[in-house]
């Protein structure tokens, strides 16, 4: 490995450990890649091998040879293991697989989120990368007859098998299956130097190979038919290099014609690796736009950032943040570096990736978990090549292994989809991005129209001069998990953030006026429809004016619950403590009730299961119900439903949005998913059917989230030449969130919200750790929760507070009972946290525990 980056502190410590131990017996802790094992094992290091943490090894494990990752050197073998029982590392399969800074990043994630390192590695690596390496046995030279005269039957058998095989080569596993006592037989043959044993590097997901044709002729083409000449001309016009299938298609030729050309020496046909990257739609090239004064200032400021400076780009909806990103990235690429752009959801990625592709062409690649394993694997390898490129991806792309990273951008940084709730590690991409920026020494840009309170407060710190400390230490744990090699307490960087603002929309277009409609008033005045008179009128005019609208509904499905008018019985999921939602399938098809938590479904009963009454009624409106009402009330309006039910298939987001952009519909009816980043100039009307569903959630972040969502939804209107208009229906028009959205008052809202957080010690003032426990046995989970809580109570030190144990808001989901304990840590204190290993040991095997650090979702 060259150019070891010495900023990776723990790695440096490890390297020192390595050199010191040269003279001593060398013990190595490794992570074994074997399904079901998460433990760390100690191995001996043979004198002839040099290993560094992060190398991929092959080690004996049980009767197998498996892949493993070197973690760290230790002075002593575990006390409960006698040194001669410890097995030796077999070989190094791949060196320097993880560059030091990347390795350090994974360690920080594991330490901060209290997860085993292997969990952090799994979230970062594409599936199948740590494939097992394979031990193979091969004959050496010619075997003279009779050399095996004194061999055991097993050795003779193996020899015979190998001789019969054309390559004289078999995998050890195969020999074991064919021959009894193969292990001994192979040892014997090795001793006699009749065979060699070698390691085949991990068989990774195979790259896809395809035949390519390359033109090699120099122009002296005499012996050609006109047909052959024609094919060569096509090939030349295509740049002299093209996939075989493509050329055959273009010339309508047969493979044999090309074979002839190859034999005559005019072309070379060879298998070449084809990268299975997600193929974007071809984009017309796009030139940089002339920046507005505010955009120019932002681009200049970002270009001048140094080291791992962090900046918050606070630009109102439609202020042209994307153009700022594009122009900030261009110089990075020309310096030969790469940029990483994180976006919240796949739903909004097509439009954004299209813009990037139009600007940077094939330098753009997309990386997210919805890619197939093959696509993910290829994109990953493409990144490792180190060519300057732009990677756009969701949360997990923060682990994209881009060498020479020059800039990280988080678009819509406030979005909660950057946080992973499960499985572990429960990381937040913004937090990981800060470490990544620090370790790679590159700037980080956080962009949003509605910045998170976390980012806002870090800007304020800068302005008030607080936070000049470089980084602030987190509470240390009593005992380190054995799986974290980072001996230092994890730190989170509280370095203050620069502030850049784009206060106006492009071309000084106004933000759309927000009309708040009091739905109580509507009912009083005799309107029982889900649409207010104002929204009805606006919908009515939409088509006549040739404009488009968006209806935002908080939920998918048809209705939130179904209940009996006679006895009040509510239909519930048998596996979860939630009501079933009604889903309308199609006219005439059986009506379906579905659970939004576990996806259980059943057909809608004719009669109440409790009292037999036929009067079952739907309550609450989801996207389907609204769509039905639109059909009934405005039959002429063409609409597209855009929610997780209609966008399940690959490419559906793009298809639906393209249809809408092509004006194949007047109205887009959808959930949260359409609130973000959508830039459609012809949309003038936004209707929020009922804001209340967002406001009254039992979560301390409900107000912040509601404000962000509603502001983002409203921001989709009036982005083109025609002015926009937002109609917001609610039963609580005086709610501070509604008021703030109406006035477009971000700052006043967050300042008031921050005061409340301070009063209650909630983040970003102070920190939270949520323990989620679940089990199919109600009493087991409850007892465990109690036991952990009392363990905590013995630990209580000033600065942290235990809330619970308490049953989760929805006690049972998919037949698992859920309890939780919330730890609240006061700001500016560094209390001693519990020993997580101890906490885990309090969980019996039938209770699972997830430690959610900085949880966003408390329900
Ligand atoms: N300098 C410019 N001149 C002309 N048009 C511009 C300029 N910058 C951006 N635009 C256009 O303005 C529109 C809005 O820009 P963009 O989508 O980047 O806004 P945004 O700030 O990301 O908004 P949101 O937060 O709502 O997603 C886009 O159609 C974009 O092409
Ligand atoms: Zn009933
Ligand atoms: Zn369910």
Automatic annotation (TrEMBL):
User: Which keywords has UniProt assigned to this entry?
Assistant: ATP-binding, DNA replication, DNA-binding, Helicase, Hydrolase, Isomerase, Metal-binding, Nucleotide-binding, Primosome, Zinc
* Residue ranges of domain Helicase C-terminal in the record: 603-760
> Which reaction is the catalytic activity of this chain?
ATP + H2O = ADP + phosphate + H(+); Couples ATP hydrolysis with the unwinding of duplex DNA by translocating in the 3'-5' direction
Per the record, the domain of life is Bacteria
**Which Enzyme Commission number(s) are on file for it?**
5.6.2.4
Q: How is the cofactor bound?
A: Binds 2 zinc ions per subunit.
| Gene3D superfamilies in UniProt | P-loop containing nucleotide triphosphate hydrolases (3.40.50.300), PriA, 3(prime) DNA-binding domain (3.40.1440.60)
Which cofactors, by name?
Zn(2+)
The family note in this entry says: Belongs to the helicase family. PriA subfamily.
State what protein this is by name.
Answer: Replication restart protein PriA
Organism annotation: Scytonema millei VB511283
